[in-house]
Amino acid sequence: MLCEAARMRIATWNVNSVTARLPRLLAWLDSARPDVLCLQELKCTDDAFPTEQVRELGYEVASHGTGRWNGVAILSKAGLDDVVRDLPGQPAYDGAIEPRAIGATCGGVRLWSVYVPNGREPGHAHYDYKLDWLAALNDTVAADTAADPSRPLAVLGDFNIAPTDDDVWDIALFTESTHITEPERKALAALRDTGLADVVPRPLKYDHPYTYWDYRQLAFPKNNGMRIDLVYGDAAVAGAVSDAYVDREERKGKSPSDHAPVVVDLDR
DNA sequence: ATGCCCTATGATATAGGA
């Protein structure tokens, strides 16, 4: 059960640099007014995170960033407790534990903001790292669930996996690529086996709820997109969903991220 | 118009993104 609020809007957004996206981020928070926003690809240190400007809009901030790459955060107007940085048992890459996960409890809901490794290409060390990382995520979800089975839980973020062939604009172009391989999709299936469900958002336009469009080659106007930003919720969360959508408006205009926010409304 | 890649960095290129 959601403890503190009957209604709660949660969202996730890979902003591709929180500094470069700051004007759009602040405007979007002010208009969409999520209770909780999970961010990925901050590309800044915690010291450089625009904490004060986000606070002025009523959000508490827990960020986890080390600089040039990666970085995740949770912004909340519904409380921000029991913050955990990194997954327990998170694998290292090239000797470093990268800032790709942060967990917190907001309004009685356990939430994780995750930026799953890209994988580069099948067979690359980064691809094995991606699968190892997903296994650690699975263990984290299982442990969190075991710790308090009555507490709703959701994982939100950039999973860098298209769950089905329909989640990319042309599957024929992906035969040599990551994001669609069986081991990656099996990792998602394992996550579902822990009791989570893929909360599929509705698109605001066209037939597929893509969340990412490359900056190049007119991908957005052509709707050459991918659904890789996902919300995985347990039965309590999935059962409380009253609406879910991709805010593709945020992919338009001046200086957009290449990802759009995914918004999920919960109503018990 | 949704419009032909973007970001941060010991920066005059490069790594990474997906």
From TrEMBL:
Keyword field contains Metal-binding: yes
Name assigned to this protein: Exodeoxyribonuclease III
Pfam families noted in UniProt: Exo_endo_phos (PF03372)
Keywords: Hydrolase, Magnesium, Metal-binding
Species: Prauserella halophila
Domain Endonuclease/exonuclease/phosphatase: 11-259
CDD domains, alphabetized: ExoIII-like_AP-endo
Region Disordered, residue ranges: 248-268
Compositional bias segments (type: Basic and acidic residues): 248-257
InterPro entries attached to this UniProt entry: AP_endonuc_1, AP_endonuclease_F1_BS, Endo/exonu/phosph_ase_sf, Endo/exonuclease/phosphatase, ExoIII-like
Family that this chain belongs to: Belongs to the DNA repair enzymes AP/ExoA family.
Tagged with keyword Transcription regulation: no
Cofactor entry: Mg(2+)
TM annotation in the entry: none
PANTHER family cross-referenced by the UniProt entry: EXODEOXYRIBONUCLEASE III
